[in-house]
Amino acid sequence: MDVSLPIWLAFIAGIIVLLAVDLVGHRGAHTVSLTEAGVRSALWIALGLGFSIVLLLWQGGEVAGQYIAGYLIEYSLSVDNIFVFALIFSSFGIPAEYRHKVLFWGILVAIVLRAVFIFGGAALLDHFHWIIYVFGAFLVGTGIRMAMKREHNVHPERNPVLRMLQRSLPMSNDYDGPHFLSKRTGVTVATPMLAVLVVLSTVDLVFALDSIPAIFGVTRETFIVVTSNAFAVLGLRTLYFLLEGVMDRFSLLKYGLAAVLCFVGGKMLLSGVYEIPIWASLVFIALALGISIALSLRLGAPKPSGSRRRSSA
To answer: Which of 18, 124, 174, 179 is the most exposed, having the fewest neighbouring CB atoms within 10 Å of its CB?
Structure first.
């Protein structure tokens, strides 16, 4: 798939416009309502899936199918990010009306960092084909660990980037509205908003170590990996506000995600022997996620057993 520089620039410009529109639509700190989150989530999903129609008309069904598979993988794995984001907000006690702003800038940083990671991964695959087997084994191992993991734990104090920031810039324990920096007795200090932004961005990059190799398992086209990642991550903010109050109802989703990671990892490991067609990948991903979501909703939220430790921060 040969993508010219003007097409890349047009896509980047489109993403910037979408981000600008979203930022203007959230001027002023306010708590995002469930209705607002639902409408905006539907719009982002429509944009994400609508881009597959552009690819269908431009490059054909195979490329469009690869994009949809990558988008579904990234979007579904984003749900796992949301559990951790909720714990981070709880750890820092960030007010609800400031959460959209920090998520906005955190997602913007994440898109840039993911793009760097994607181009690096594509270069490795182009020069060292055996890397695909390393990615495959890594995804299978990640899937197994995800299925066995009982709960999320967040340790902001262990974040190396945050510790580096604390050493280079004075930090305040108090919020100054939605600002990342504040003047205190003539000295510029970082507020907890900046600390949350740093933790969110680095945590998302860690999650990308799982999701990006998974997308490379369904397509080697860098443009498809970048675009599917961008559209999925752009919808992550509104998805957080939509699922914020009902995340416990998706207790079995992690098993569906684990199955997807193991499947894609196995697909990579078998790539030298048999290439699983994209339609089979789409069917498996849809079934694994659909069944795990349906069973989660049917069983309902798990009943708490005693005091459940969510974070040690």
So the answer is: 174
For helices 99-127 and 236-243, the axis angle rounded to 10 degrees is 130
Name the token pair of 272.
């030298």
Query: Tokens 């431009």 label which residue?
Result: 58
Question: Taking the CA of residue 23 as centre, how many other CA atoms within 13 Å lie in the half-sphere pointing to its CB?
Answer: 14
Q: Report the C-alpha gap between 289 and 257 in whole angstroms.
A: 7
| Measured CA distances, 120 to 116, 143, 223 (Å) | 6, 23, 13
CA dihedral 38, 43, 48, 49 (to 10 degrees): 90
Contact of 83 with 304, CB cutoff 8 Å: no
pLDDT digits (tens, 9 = 90+) for 117-175: 888 888 888 888 788 888 888 888 888 888 887 666 666 667 777 888 778 888 888 88
Task: Please state, in angstroms and as integers, the Cα–Cα distance from residue 150 to each residue in 145, 249, 254, 312, following that order.
Answer: 10, 15, 10, 15
- The count of C-alpha atoms lying within 13 angstroms of the C-alpha of 147, restricted to the half-sphere facing its C-beta, is 15
Q: What is the pTM of this model?
A: 0.79
Residues of the chain whose pLDDT is less than 50?
305-313
Q: Which pairing describes strands 187-190 and 181-184: parallel, antiparallel, or unpaired?
A: antiparallel
Beta-carbon contacts of 66 under 8 Å, excluding residues fewer than 6 positions away, are 218, 219, 221, 224, 278
String of DSSP letters for 33-46: PHHHHHHHHHHHHH
CB 171 within 8 Å of CB 195: yes
The pLDDT value given to residue 30: 64
**Residue 227 has what pLDDT?**
93
According to DSSP, the residues that pair with 181 across neighbouring strands are 190
Question: Alpha-carbon distance 292 to 255, whole Å?
Answer: 7
Distance between CA atoms of residues 255 and 245, nearest Å: 21
CA dist., res. 134 & res. 146, Å (int): 18
